[in-house]
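Check my protein:
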Amino acid sequence: MGRSFILSALAALALAAPIAAQEAPPGVLVIAHRGASGERPEHTLAAYERAIDQGADYVEPDLVATRDRVLVARHENEISGTTDVADHPEFADRRTTKAIDGQQVTGWFVEDFTLAELRTLRAKERLPALRPGNARFDGLYQIPTFAEIAALVKAKEAETGRRIGLYPELKHPQFLLQHAGIDTVDLLLRELTAAGIEADDPVFIQSFEIAPLRRLDARSDYKLVQLVGVEGGPADEPAMRYSAMVTMDGAARIAEYADAVSADIRLLLEEDGTPSGLVTAAHAAGLKVHAWTLRKENAFLPPPLRRDESEGARGCPEKLWALLARAGVDGVIADDPALAVAARAGATCERPE
């Protein structure tokens, strides 16, 4: 959270508990960020299944592609922070540096591995200092394919009798197309078809870039989501700023090709904790609004919502949920779906000391 938000929202945050109980719309979606990534290493089948068992409406896999053109779930195409690839001497010569979306990144990249090679790696916790409990699961899980995630969702639907949505994000689609010759738009459409997932199923496809969403809009009827951040702009539109995309005119342009906008929480709340104009602009354009990312650890919460001095200790994300619900968002992307589901039902936490 920005400093000005932290300092100015104290009064609103103090009132958040009764707001949660009285005003949270029952239809606010809980979207499990990389699965239950607050409790298991992110983007593993274990994380997705735990999220579903906790009541998440959607699970959110970030998708990149292997050299042999299989979509797999990783936060980024660079995997040294989320796998044990650095411990595999047979892949030492794959370490390289690439310019991705204007940034120099050094490490190992999914597009330089076949799926069979990736299968020899194991996932690990990306934030072990903040989430040491997750690190206990390091080395247990493989990198899942998108097809496996879709199959898990169908199996859990059969088990639970409820619909479970998919909310995939295409990571760096223009980079992969231009520098690796991998068209992740085409791959995703083919894999959705192969999985029997149709446009009227609960599916949102998201990207920070514009061209892939426009291509998806031209080729399919799946619901599409434009991601926006506080700073910068789409990598495929260097002259465009996200700040210009969250105005009335910007939202109307997004509505030409997308069905929703997913925004950093700091874009959705004013400095005093009241709703920003983004929600109003998006809803006026006919767009749904989703918020990212709700997390429980103190490190990700403003000081009024922290409960002790430890960065990794649990704070009070329920109060932040309350402000977002009052702002009128249609969904919240959360690392801990169990907490989000409880907050939607009116759960609160004690005021921090």
Q: What stands out?
A: The radius of gyration is 20 Å. The chain has a mean pLDDT of 92. The chain has 16 helices and 13 strands.
